[in-house]
Amino acid sequence: QVQLVESGGELVQAGGSLRLSCAASGRTFTRYPMGWFRQAPGKEREIVCAISWSGGTTYYTDSVKGRFTISRDNVKNTVSLQMNSLKPEDTAVYYCAASQYLGGSYYIAPSQYAYWGQGTQVTVSS
Q: Up-side HSE of residue 111: CA atoms within 13 Å toward CB?
């Protein structure tokens, strides 16, 4: 199993940047495909981006392409989300997640992730 703890969320003005981090514990972290999801009030949880176990393959939802970057450090057991040019519509609770499909590529459905962090609030003011 793996335990996940997110950090880095805060209030930022539109056009600003934030970097979210997810610290993972567990012996097999390097084999977990990882993802960042977000959930805004009254909306369903949605995929933001995802990364394969090796870091070689990534996925971004259309609304964040060119603005967000996911990365991972398999030595430090961390996954990061660099968010630039933030918009008010990016406001949400952001969750880090690990897929149960060890050694896989990336996954975009919440059901494909077995382990979740507690979430970190990102608020973008206009």
A: 0
